[in-house]
Structure formats: structure tokens, C-alpha cells
TrEMBL record, chain A:
PANTHER family: ABC TRANSPORTER PERMEASE PROTEIN YPHD-RELATED, ABC TRANSPORTER PERMEASE PROTEIN YPHD-RELATED-RELATED. CDD domains: TM_PBP1_transp_AraH_like (cd06579). This is Monosaccharide ABC transporter membrane protein (CUT2 family). The chain crosses the membrane at residues 34-53, 65-84, 91-109, 115-137, 144-163, 183-202, 233-250, 265-282, 287-306, 312-332. The keyword Cell wall biogenesis/degradation does not apply. It comes from Rhizobium loti (Mesorhizobium loti). Its main location: membrane. The keyword ATP-binding does not apply. Keywords: Cell inner membrane, Cell membrane, Membrane, Transmembrane, Transmembrane helix, Transport. It is a multi-pass membrane protein. It is found in: Cell membrane. GO terms for cellular component: plasma membrane.
TrEMBL record, chain B:
This is Ribose transport system ATP-binding protein. It holds the Pfam family ABC_tran. PROSITE patterns: ABC_TRANSPORTER_1 (PS00211), ABC_TRANSPORTER_2 (PS50893). Keywords: ATP-binding, Cell membrane, Membrane, Nucleotide-binding, Repeat, Sugar transport, Translocase, Transport. InterPro entries: AAA+_ATPase, ABC_carbohydrate_import_ATPase, ABC_transporter-like_ATP-bd, ABC_transporter-like_CS, P-loop_NTPase. Belongs to the ABC transporter superfamily. One of its GO terms (molecular function) is ATP binding. The keyword GTP-binding does not apply. Residues 4-241, 245-497 form the ABC transporter domain.
């Protein structure tokens, strides 16, 4: 029988494979978001304790102050979140933050056009160094952990060469940016809103979806036509860009540069994301969670302060909270898996 | 005119030739089946066509134009889409996000237009009468069969001129498989070319216009589907093999049962496996890939869970983890499939690898006896003829065959006399293969009981005393004596599977 003679049977819909489950699967959704919900609960708990010990916690001033304190971490953690969703990790942000602050503190003058130029240069440098990380990871097929550990060390060294000790300065009006107000909210609060808006847009773009997909299953993404190299360049480039942004913001808070300050943000940026429900294995997580995680880590510092205990308790508390978050994620993950089977 | 013409296609992976001078041609509007044993080169061929892998030599013409896709994107741009056996879906995206991945309709803000995407999804699912799918559901909540259907939808979403279906029916229940076969005919009637790969002969018979048979990376024959018999096809798939590689098979099995397995089940992967392995016997485990062989070996070794009863040397045992499997003379030892990942510590020495799991044997009063260790290591290196400069050479620097010997040594030192060998000759050179087969027969003669899986069928035919053929997680046939042949194994694994 030739092709032409063969009768064509049109496909008919087979009997439903299983009864359709109408409505929204609330329990499944709650399980999916369990780590995020746990983070919200933790934040509420910390705020409640803090509020009961200190007056004026529930005020606009307090929101402005806490956001200002958390913003460097939030910016760094935004880049880290993108990298984690991709299934990688970026340790080099520590070096980039240090380098950014020392360049700003040594190159900024009172002339706004010089400042504008160097601001752009620092941001561009952040993106380029990040892109280089991505390129090295893809082309040399190296572990992100090792590549970014190496670039962290290199950037740190360069920062030391430029400015061996804490110092330098930025213009007073630049510092003023960090405290500028609009409608009673300071610039960090507006930046926070801008970050959320950015994420809402970014994760719905093709690039955002592709980064998430690559983190979820790299091989599948490749088979679907994704260029893994391009994804890595964009992912780590954005991380470097946000680290540079964090450095610039940090100089409005300190007024100076520091060749060693960046390391204080490397692991907290990962911790904030994990507390907020971002998976270390890639593919899952939202910036809202990360930002809540950053608030949790920052407010623990406040809490330790008002409790009048040694400040060394802060890392202890942060560690315990990190463990609780990881536990919540893994319990939710197991429950979700059991539901599928 | 032919839509696709392939000439002299070659592909090597290191020293392994995956395709050599393969040819292929197919027309628009036909269903063209691609047949061959595991490792015949089918997968490499479709990976090249779909842009996942680049070929080394030869030419491909699509529509008379040269075709050499740099990546899957370039393949799609030329109208070629593949439905992979190894699915290309993203677990954390929804069904519709997966279907339109990288081709999503967009809004003015260049974000994904969800409303438009939903509309297009429903239109697509309706056009081809897809089984019920919920577009918003996350992929990782779906069953394997549902995922396979999403993968098919993803392929069709690109409106391809050439659609490659790689074992697309193997994960589907009967009704859905039937739907897919009709869909395949419908697609051909629309003027597309469907390249169809399946191990189920009845399906190929039902829908293929023509079929091309691959063996050892080359094209053996092209037939009109109605002008060739099943037996001819099977014979051409197997071809002729040299059998000097194999040692003489002398029956050494006694009546004593070493390993008895009853009602062994694990989810959908293993269902009610029963068999008995005797002292001095080499019992082969065959069948098409992915029909429960891996699960059987892993469960027996305690590396994954299964229900049912297991008796070792007449005593019922329960093995919950590999540590319990390795209990001295009454235990079970495994040569795992992934030598570099599971079996060997590549950065440790031959000596350390050999003695890792038996360290107790050289410990006296809590102290390691170096002399006893050295003596045992030397004995094993000599016995297996492991070619290492010294026992301190790193395992990672040995050849594949010698690495496999170290794993054998490690297994023998546990003193277990029931041995599970999972594809022990994979990636091993021919000379060492012969040594391994001889070793297996020698061990059997010494009273060891050996369960032996190989993805290479001739090995089962020439080395095993009996062969269990697995199909859909159960034992489809037990072949003995003269009844063991490649054709009989393949027949039990394939042809009769339509009855199941």
C-alpha cells in the first residue's frame, strides 16, 4: 500500500487519563510556598518581639531606618537570587562590592559629571566581571563556586592595591542621596519597591523564564534550544551589576571606601535567599522571599542590640534561623513529592 | 523529491564509533520508522538531526539544501522538531510554559502574554485531540505519561515539517499510545514527515510506510513496510557477530539454590519478579533497556526499596541498604553500572579501593595490619592480572578495563558468593572483555552464583547458562540451553509485548 492509498484515520481524543480535578489545588500551592510562608512568619515573629521591647517600632521612621540598613544586602541578594535560580552561586560579589566602594571613594569628586561617569563605569565593570564569570564557567566547564571564589580573591586584591585601608571619601551630596525623601519615604524604600517591580517584570520576560528553566533542568533547556553560555553570561553579569549597585549604595551609608567590606555580604546574600525560599538547586524562588530574608537577618541585629546581649549572638541567631528555613523547605519538598506519587 | 537525504553520516565519541557512513532518505507525507538494537546509532542519528549533536562527516540535505544545525534552535528554524525519549521538559515550569518555551507570545513590555498563551495552548490541544491536560499545572506534578504527552504538544507547537518521535509510545498507556499512532498518520496526511522510532513491532507495522534498519552505526536496509517480514527485520537488526571472544561454557551449576527471589516488586518498575539462582550458575538478565533490569539489581543490593521475599542460601533475608548486603560469605556484592561514579574512588590508590569495604578483615584489636592488607591486595592484583605499576597507583589513571578489574577485586574481597554484575563490560576493551568472561566462568566453577546483566545481547547468549528476559518490570521468558539466541531474546522482549 503506497502512501497515497493508505486511509487516514483522524486522531480521536482518548478517554481522559484520570478524572479532571476541578478548582485550585490550595494545599499544593501552600506546600509550594511553604518556605516563603515560613519566612513571613519568622519576620512577623521578630518584628513582634522587637516591637514589644522597643517603642516606636511600628513607625515610618523605623521602616526607613531598617530598609536603609538592609539595602546593601538586598541589592547584593537580588543578584544572588538570580544566580541561585539559575542553579549557580556567586561568591565574587564580595570582591565586587569592595572594589566598587574603593573606586568610588578614590575617584568621586565634587563635580557631578565626574561622579556620573564613574558611577556608570562601576556599574559597567560589575556587569563585565560578572559576564566574565559566566563565560569562564561555560567555556572552561568549571564549577561556579570555584570560578567565583577565584574572581572574588582577584577583585579583593585589586581593591587592596587601589586603597590598602578603609578611607577615601565621597561628596556630601552623594551621601545625601541615601537619605533623600519623597512622600515621607527615603530613597532605600523606593529602591525596595523598584526592586520588586523589576522582579515582577524580569521573571515574566523570556530571558527571566529561560534563566529559571536552565536552573530547573539544564539539559532540557539545552535540548529546547537554549544557549547555556548566553544564559550564564547574562545571569552572572546581572549579579555583578547588582553587586556594583550595592557598592554604590554602601558608599552613601559609609561615606568612604573599604577594601574588605564586601566579604560581609557574600554568605548573608545566600542566606537571605535561602531563608526566603530560593532553592539552592535552582529553578525555584522569588525575590520577595529574598527581601524578607534580608529583613530577617537585619532585624536580628536590632533585636540583639535591644536585648543588651553580646553582639556575638547575632551570627548564632542567624544560623539557627537559616537552619529552620532549610528544614521548612525540605519538609515541604518531601510532602510535595509524596503528593505526586 | 526527498525531503531529507543523508549520505555517509559519521560520528565518533572518542574511540567509540557511533555512526559510520549511515545513509537515510525520507519523503514529505510519510511515516518512516527507524529500527535497530540498543547502540545501533539511532539515538545519535536523531540527535544530529535535531541539532543536539554535530556530525563529524557526511552530508545532510533538507529540501535539497545543506543542513548542519549548530544547535536545537537552528534545527527548529529549518522546521525540524524532536520529541525526545529523554524528555526536554522543565520541571519547574507549567504545562503551557513548557509547550511554548522560548516561543511565548509577548506583550508590549516584552513579558509573556499569558492570556494569548492560554488561548494558543487550548487551540493546539483541541486541534490534535490531546488527552486532558491542565495548562497551568506545574510539570513536576505530572505523571510520566502526562509528561510524554506534553513533550509531544511541545514538538507540535513549532508546526514542524519533520517531526521525530523517539520511543514516544513507550511511556504511554494503551489508549494514549493508540491516539498517538492515529495522530502520527494524521500528521503525515498533512504533508509532514514523521520519523518514528519504536521497539514495538506491531506499532511500526500499523503506521509506517517505510522502514530503515541501523546496525553498528550503519544503514543495513531500507524496506517498504508491507514488503518485509518480522523475522527478516529482526535478523537484519542483529546481523552476524564473531564469537571467539567467549569462553567455553561448561555447566557447573549445582542443585543448591544461592538466591531465591519471590514476588519482588517496586512501584511500576518491578512487578512480581520470581527466579532462583543456583550455586555455580551464571544467570543472564536481558531485555530492552529500561524494563526493570536496573531496578532489579539495585533493589537486590539494597540500594533502592522493593517488596517481596529474598532468600540467600536458603535463609530469608531482608536487605535494606548495601551495608546489610555485604555481610561476608553469605552476602551479595554488586558491580555497579556507573563505574566512575559509584564503583571507584578515582583519586584513591588501587590498594585503598580494593580494601575500602573490607577494612575489618585486616584489623586486629582496632589496629590495621598493613602486612595482611598488603598480602590480600597482592593476591587480588595477581589473580585478576590488574595492570598497575604499584598498588599505590591512583585508580583514576588506570585503563577502563583495569578499573573494572579493581571493582571485581573489591567485590571478591567482600567474600560474598552471590555476585550481581550490571553491564560489567561496558566501556571495556575487547581483550579485557574476554578476560572478564573467563573470570566469570571460573568463579562459577568455584561455586559462586552470578546474576549478569548486559546491554550487549551476544554476551548474554554466549556467557550465561540461562537468560531471564525482562519486559515491563516482570520476567517475560526464561530461556535455557539451545533456546538462548539473540532472536529469541529480542522476540520475547519485543514481539510478544503486544499481548501484555
Amino acid at each position: 500500500m503506497s502512501v497515497a492509498e493508505r486511509p487516514v484515520e483522524m486522531a480521536q481524543r482518548p478517554v481522559e487519563m484520570k478524572p479532571a480535578r476541578p478548582g485550585i489545588d490550595w494545599r499544593g500551592r501552600a506546600l509550594d510556598r511553604a518556605p516563603f510562608l515560613v519566612a513571613c512568619l519568622m519576620l512577623a515573629l521578630i518584628v513582634a518581639i522587637y516591637g514589644s521591647l522597643q517603642s516606636g517600632v511600628f513607625s515610618l521612621d523605623e521602616i526607613n531606618l531598617d530598609t536603609a540598613a538592609a539595602m546593601t544586602l538586598m541589592l547584593a541578594a537580588t543578584g544572588q537570587t538570580i544566580v541561585l535560580v539559575r542553579g549557580g552561586i556567586d561568591l565574587s560579589i564580595g570582591g565586587m562590592i569592595s572594589l566598587g566602594t574603593v573606586i568610588a571613594a578614590t575617584r568621586f569628586t565634587d563635580d557631578p559629571s565626574t561622579v556620573a561617569l564613574w558611577t556608570l563605569a562601576i556599574l559597567a565593570l560589575g556587569f563585565l566581571i560578572g559576564a566574565l564569570n559566566g563565560l569562564l564557567i561555560s567555556l572552561l566547564k568549571l564549577q561556579p563556586f570555584l570560578v567565583t571564589l577565584a574572581t572574588w580573591s582577584i577583585l579583593n586584591g585589586v581593591a587592596m592595591i587601589i586603597l590598602p585601608t578603609d578611607g577615601g571619601s565621597v561628596p556630601g551630596w552623594w551621601v545625601g542621596f541615601g537619605y533623600a525623601q519623597l512622600f515621607g519615604l527615603t530613597s532605600p524604600v523606593w529602591m525596595l519597591l523598584a526592586l520588586l517591580l523589576f522582579w515582577w517584570w524580569f521573571r515574566a520576560t523570556r530571558v527571566g523564564v529561560t534563566i529559571q528553566a536552565t536552573g530547573s533542568n539544564e539539559k532540557s533547556a539545552f535540548l529546547s534550544g537554549v544557549s547555556i553560555t548566553r544564559v550564564n553570561v547574562i545571569t552572572y553579569g546581572l549579579s555583578g551589576l547588582f553587586a556594583a549597585g550595592a557598592a554604590l549604595y554602601l558608599t552613601t551609608q559609609t561615606g568612604a571606601g573599604s577594601p574588605t567590606i564586601g566579604k560581609d555580604y557574600i554568605l548573608p546574600s545566600v542566606a537571605a535567599a535561602v531563608i526566603g525560599g530560593v532553592s539552592l538547586f535552582g529553578g525555584r524562588g522569588h525575590l520577595a522571599g529574598t527581601l524578607i530574608g534580608a529583613f530577617v537577618l537585619t532585624l536580628i541585629g536590632n533585636l540583639v542590640f535591644v536585648l543588651h546581649v553580646s553582639s556575638y549572638w547575632q551570627p548564632v541567631a542567624s544560623g539557627v534561623i537559616l537552619l529552620l528555613s532549610v528544614l521548612a523547605s525540605s519538609v515541604a519538598e518531601k510532602a510535595a513529592r509524596n503528593r505526586v506519587q | 523529491m526527498d525531503l531529507v537525504t543523508v549520505k555517509g553520516l559519521s560520528k565518533r565519541y572518542g574511540g567509540i564509533v557511533a555512526l559510520s557512513e549511515a545513509t537515510f532518505s525520507a519523503r514529505a507525507g510519510e511515516v518512516h520508522a527507524l529500527l535497530g538494537e540498543n547502540g545501533a546509532g539511532k539515538s545519535t542519528f536523531i540527535q544530529i538531526l535535531s541539532g543536539a549533536v554535530r556530525h563529524d562527516g557526511g552530508s545532510i540535505l533538507v529540501d535539497g539544501q545543506d543542513y548542519r544545525p549548530a544547535n536545537p534552535d537552528a534545527a527548529q528554524a529549518r522546521g525540524i522538531a524532536a520529541v525526545f525519549q529523554e524528555l526536554s521538559l522543565i520541571p519547574d515550569l507549567s504545562v503551557e510554559q513548557n509547550i511554548w518555551f522560548r516561543h511565548e507570545p509577548r506583550t508590549l513590555l516584552s513579558t509573556v502574554n499569558r492570556a494569548e498563551m492560554r488561548r494558543k495552548t487550548l487551540a493546539l490541544l483541541d486541534k490534535y485531540k490531546f488527552p486532558a491536560l491542565r495548562p497551568e499545572q506545574e510539570l513536576r506534578r505530572l505523571t510520566l505519561a502526562e509528561r510524554q504527552i506534553v513533550e509531544i504538544a511541545k514538538g507540535l507547537a513549532k508546526d514542524p515539517r519533520i517531526l521525530i518521535l523517539d520511543e514516544a509510545t513507550s511511556a504511554l498507556p494503551a489508549r494514549e499510545a493508540e491516539w498517538l499512532l492515529k495522530l502520527t498518520r494524521q500528521l503525515a496526511a498533512e504533508g509532514r514527515l514523521v520519523i518514528f522510532i519504536s521497539h514495538r513491532m506491531a506499532e511500526v507495522r500499523a503506521i509506517a510506510d517505510r522502514l530503515t534498519i541501523f546496525r553498528n552505526g550503519s544503514t543495513i536496509a531500507v524496506h517498504e513496510a508491507n514488503a518485509v517480514s518480522d523475522n527478516e527485520i529482526v535478523t537484519q537488526m542483529i546481523g552476524r557477530h564473531l564469537d571467539r571472544l567467549y569462553p567455553e561454557r561448561i555447566a557447573t551449576a549445582t542443585d543448591r539454590i544461592a538466591l531465591k527471589v519471590k514476588g519482588f516488586s517496586s512501584g511500576s518498575r518491578l512487578s512480581g519478579v520470581d527466579f532462583a539462582l543456583r550455586e555455580g550458575e551464571v544467570l543472564g538478565v536481558g531485555g530492552l533497556q529500561g524494563h526493570g533490569q536496573r531496578e532489579l539489581f539495585q533493589s537486590l543490593f539494597g540500594a533502592s526499596k522493593a517488596s517481596g521475599t529474598v532468600e540467600l542460601w536458603g535463609k530469608p533475608v531482608s536487605i535494606g541498604n548495601p551495608r546489610q548486603a555485604l555481610t561476608g560469605k553469605d552476602g551479595i556484592a554488586l558491580v555497579p553500572e556507573d563505574r566512575r561514579g559509584q564503583g571507584l574512588l578515582l583519586t584513591k590508590s588501587v590498594r585503598e579501593n580494593l580494601t575500602l569495604s573490607v577494612i575489618k578483615r585486616f584489623t586486629e584489636n582496632g589496629l590495621l595490619s598493613r602486612q595482611r592488607e598488603a598480602a590480600l591486595v597482592k593476591e587480588m592484583v595477581d589473580f585478576l592480572r590488574i595492570k598497575a605499576g604499584t598498588p599505590e597507583q591512583l585508580a583514576g589513571t588506570l585503563s577502563g578495563g583495569n578499573q573494572q578489574k579493581v571493582i571485581f577485586g573489591k567485590m571478591l574481597l567482600t567474600q560474598a558468593r552471590v555476585l550481581l554484575l550490571y553491564d560489567p563490560t561496558r566501556g571495556v576493551d575487547v581483550g579485557t572483555k574476554g578476560e572478564i568472561f573467563q573470570l566469570m566462568r571460573d568463579l562459577a566453577a568455584k561455586g559462586y552464583a552470578i546474576l549478569f546483566h548486559s546491554s550487549d545481547m551476544p554476551e548474554l547468549v554466549h556467557v550465561a547458562d540461562r537468560v531471564l528476559v525482562m519486559r515491563n518490570g516482570g520476567i517475560a521468558a526464561t530461556l535455557e540451553g539451545d533456546r538462548i539466541s539473540e532472536a529469541s531474546i529480542l522476540r520475547a522482549a519485543m514481539l510478544e509485548s503486544e499481548a501484555a
